[in-house]
Amino acid sequence: MLNQLIQGILLGGYYALIAIGLSFMFSVMRVINLAHGSLLIVAAYALWFLADTYGVNPFLGLLIVLPLMAGIGWALQRFLLERSARGGSLLPILTTFGLAIVVDNLMFQRFGADTRSLAPFIGDLSWSSFELPGGLFVGKLSVLIFLTAILLVGGLQSLLKFTPLGRAIRATAQDPDTARLVGIDAARASAAAAAIALVTIGIAGAFLGMRGVFDAYAGAPQLLFAFEAAVIGGTGSLWGTLIGGIFLALAQSFGAMVHPQGFLIGGHLAFLAALFYRHFVARQLVADWLRSRARRPA
Amino acid sequence: MMKDAKSFNVTRWTPTSRLILGLIAVLLIALAIAPVVASAGVIDRLTVLFVYILLAAMWNALAGFGGLVSIGQHMFFGLGAYLTIRLANTGLDPFASMALAAALVGMISLAVSYLMLHLKGGEFAIAMWVLAALTHRLVNLDPLIQGETGTSLISLNVYEIGVRRIAIYWAGLTAMTALLAALFLLLRSKTGAAIQAIRDSEEAAASIGVNVLGTKRVLFVLAAVGIGLAGAIWLASAISFQPKTYFSVQWTAYMIFMVLVGGIGTFEGAILGAVLFFLIESWFGDAGVWYLIGLGATALFFSLFFPKGLWGAIERRLPHALLPIGYTLSDFSPQEPHSRTANHQRSR
Amino acid sequence: MLAIEGLDVRHGQLVAVRDVSFSLEQGEILALVGANGAGKTTLLRAIAGAHAPSMGRILLGGEDVTLLPADRRVAAGLALVPEGRRLFADMTVEENLLLGASAGRPGDWTLARIFEAFPILVKRRGAKASSLSGGEQQATAIGRALMSNPNVILLDEVSLGLAPLAVRQVYASLHRLLASGATILLVEQDLTRAMSVASRVACMSEGRIVLDRPIAAVTRDEITDAYFGLNKAGGGNQAAAC
C-alpha cells in the first residue's frame, strides 16, 4: 500500500513534468496548445536520433535539442500563434490541432511504426533503484524525474517573479496593450514565453523517452495526461500542476487496483470529479463564504 | 432596429433562395430514387458522402454557431455505433436500434452538457477529448464488445444484401436531410436569433436576456444526435465495430478539416467542405501518411490565412445568402443603394 | 520636443480626432481640456502609439515616430499615464514600477527616487496593485511612467475618480516633476487645477483643437466657451483665432 502510494506520487512527478509546458503556455499566453503532446515526441525522437546515429548520451543531447526546441517555440509563436490569435480565441485551438496532425504524421513518415526508447542509452539509470528502509524500492529515474519537475516549477516561478523578462511576460499576459505602453515589446515577450515553454517540453520529452517507449502517435495520450494534471491542479498554476499530477497518478493507481483496465478510467474520472468540484462545489463554497462575510459587519 | 421602417422591405425569401430551395428539393428526390439506376459502388460512396455532410454540419453547428470548439466529437460517433449494437443485441430491429441509439446519445449529451458547457475555449475542447477517451474505455469494458476485439452488427443479416445497401443508403439520406433541416429551422427560429447574438458577443447577448447556456445546450445536443446517427449509419455500412476505429480522434479531425476548409459558421460552408473532403479522399486517400499530412497542413493553412474558409470567400461575391437564415434588407430609396449602413448612421 | 501635424484618428466610422496640430517646447506644460468625448484620450493614445492615426504625423525630438509601435516610442522618450491607470493588477507596486523601466532608457529616475517623490508608496511597495487606494494607484501609474525616464510625459485624467485629498497629494508630487523642467501634456477635467499647473492651455471640441493659447493670454470664460463649443457657431475664422 505504502509502496503504491510512493510509486503513485513519483508517477505524479512525471505527469507534472509533461504538464508544465502546457500550463505555462496557458497561463502566460492564453493558448491551449494541442500540439503539446506531439512536441514532446519530437524532442524524444530528436534525442533518440542523436543517440542512435551518433551515440550521443541523451543528457548531453539535451544541449543540442533544448536550443532547438526554444527555436521551435519562438517560430511557433511568431509564425503561427500570433497570426491565428488575431482571428479570435478559438482559432489557435484549430491551428495547433492541425499542427499536431502534421507533426505526428511527418514523424511517422520519417521514423516508421517501430516503437523507440531512450532507455538503452542511459546505462543502468533506467532500471536501478534506491532501497528505502522497510524494503521499499524506488526507481532512480522516477526520483530524478520528480526532482526535475520540482526544480522546473521552482525555476519557472522564480523566472516569472524575479527577472525583467519574467515580469515582461506576466505583464504581457495580463494586458498586452498596456504592456506596450510601458515599453515592453509584447511580441518579443510572448515569443520568449513560447521558447521557454518549448524548453520545458524538451526536458519532459527526454524523460518520456527514458522511462518508456514511444512512437509517432504517442503524443495524443500524453497531451491528455498533461491536460488532466493541469486542470486538476487548477489551470495555469504551476505548483498546482505538481499537485494535479500526483492526484492524477494516485487516481490511476487506485483505478488499476479496482479493475485490470481501470488505470486510465480512474484518471479520467478524477479529472471529471475535479471539474465537477470546481464548477459546482467550489463555486458554492465561495458564494457561501461571501454571504457569511457580507452578513458579519452588519 | 430601424425607426424608419416604411422605407425598408424586410424579406427572408429572395427569388434566388426560392430557386435554390426548389433545386434542393429536386436534388433530394433524385437522390432518393437514385438506387433504381445507380450501381452498388455508387450507392455505397454516396452513403459515405451523406455521413460526411452530417458530421461536418453538426461540428459546424457546435463550433460555428455555438462557439464551442470540441476535439471530442468522436465520442458521440462511437457511442452512436456502440449503442446501436447494444440495442440490436436485445433483438430490436437494427434500423430501429439506430434511431433509438441516436436518441440515447442525445440524452447522454444532455446530461454531459451540464458539466462541460461551463468550460471555455481550449479547456472545453480538450475536456471533450478526455470524455471521449473515457467513453472509449468504458465501452471496452462491455463483455459484448470484448475489448478492442470488437463485434459486428450481425442482426443486419436478416436483410438481403441488395436491400440492406439501399436501406442504409436511405437511412443516411434521411438522417442527413432531417438534421440539416432541423439545423436550418433552428437557425431561423427565435433560438437562431439568440445564436446570432451569442456569436457576436456572448456578454452582450447575456446582458439583453439571451439564455446563453440554454442556447448552447440546444446546439450541443443537436450535434451529438447528428453525430451519433452518423456513427450508427457508418456501423451499418461497415458492419463490424472495433472501439478503436470509432472512438478515434481522426473523426473529429475530419470534421474540423471539412468545416475549416468549407467555411466555419456558415450553413453552406460545412456542406461544401464535406463534398470537397469526400472528393479529396476519393482521389488521394490511398496516399497514406502523406494524405494525412496534407489534410493537417491544409487545415493549418486555412486556420492561418483563410479562417472564413472557401465559402467565406464565395459569400462575399454573392448578393444574398443562398439559404435564407437571416433577413435581407433592401431599401427603396433609389439614390442610396447601400443605405443600410448609411441609414443606420443617420438615425444616430 | 513633441510636434503633431494634421492628425486624424478614427474609431471605425467615427472620426475621434480631426486635423489636430500643435507642438510642445522643452519644459512646456500643455493642459488639454474639453468635454467628455471631445477626443482628448484618443489623441493621447494616438500619440503614445496605442491607436494608429489615419492621417498626419507625430514627431518626437524631430524624429518621425508615427509608424513606431508603442514600446519603441517609450524607448524614444515618450510615456503615457493612461486613463484609468491600467496597472498590472496581479503584480506588486514595485513590480509595476520596474516594468516602467522595460525600455532601458538611462536617466535620473530610479526606484529610490520614485519612492522619494511618492512617499505614500513606500509602505505599499510589496502590495498587489489591485489592493491599492485610488491615490496610491495613480501615484504608481505616474511612477511607472517616470521609470522610463521620458522626455515627454502624457498624463491622462490623473485626478479622475480620486478623493480630493488624493488629488492634492498627486498634484503635490507632480509639482516636483513640473519644477524639474519636464515636458508635459496633461488632460484634466478640473479647469482650475489645469490652469494652476500649465503654461499653456488647449481646448478640444468634437475632435478639433478650438483654442490653444499661453495661460497668461486666456481667461477662464474663454476656455469655458470653447469647452462647450460655443464659439463654433461663430464660424471658421473665430475658431481659428481662438
Can you tag this structure with a few keywords?
heterotrimer, A: mainly alpha, ABC transporter involved in vitamin B12 uptake, BtuC, two-stranded antiparallel sheet, 4% strand, globular, C: 242 residues, alpha/beta, 6-stranded mixed sheet, 9 helices
How would the blueprint of this fold be written?
The complex is a heterotrimer of chains A (298), B (348) and C (242).
Chain A: H1 2-29, H2 36-54, H3 58-85, H4 91-111, E1 116-117, E2 129-132, E3 136-139, H5 140-162, H6 164-174, H7 176-181, H8 186-211, E4 213-214, H9 219-232, H10 238-258, H11 262-295
Helix pairs in contact in A: 1-5, 1-8, 1-9, 1-10, 2-3, 2-4, 2-8, 2-9, 3-4, 3-8, 5-6, 5-8, 6-8, 9-10, 9-11, 10-11
Chain B: E1 8-11, H1 15-33, H2 40-65, H3 74-88, H4 94-116, H5 121-141, E2 151-152, H6 161-188, H7 190-200, H8 202-207, H9 212-238, E3 240-241, H10 243-246, H11 249-262, H12 267-284, H13 289-305, H14 309-315, E4 328-331, H15 339-346
Antiparallel strand pairs in B: 1-4, 2-3
Chain C: E1 2-11, E2 14-24, E3 29-34, H1 40-48, E4 55-60, E5 63-64, H2 70-75, E6 78-81, H3 93-100, H4 111-117, H5 134-146, E7 152-156, H6 164-179, E8 183-187, H7 191-197, E9 200-205, E10 208-214, H8 220-227, H9 236-241
Parallel strand pairs in C: 3-8, 3-9, 6-7, 7-8
Antiparallel strand pairs in C: 1-2, 1-4, 4-5, 9-10
Helix pairs in contact in C: 3-5, 5-6
Helix and strand succession of chain B? EHHHHHEHHHHEHHHHHEH
- C-alpha geometry of chain B: globular
Average pLDDT level of chain A: 92
Helix content of chain A: over 70%
CATH architecture of chain B: Orthogonal Bundle
Oligomer: heterotrimer
Structural class of chain A: mainly alpha
Q: Which two chains have the most extensive interface, and how many residues on each?
A: A-B, 44 and 39 residues
Q: How many E strands of chain B?
A: 4
Q: Class of chain A, according to the CATH hierarchy?
A: Mainly Alpha
Strand residue content of chain B: under 5%
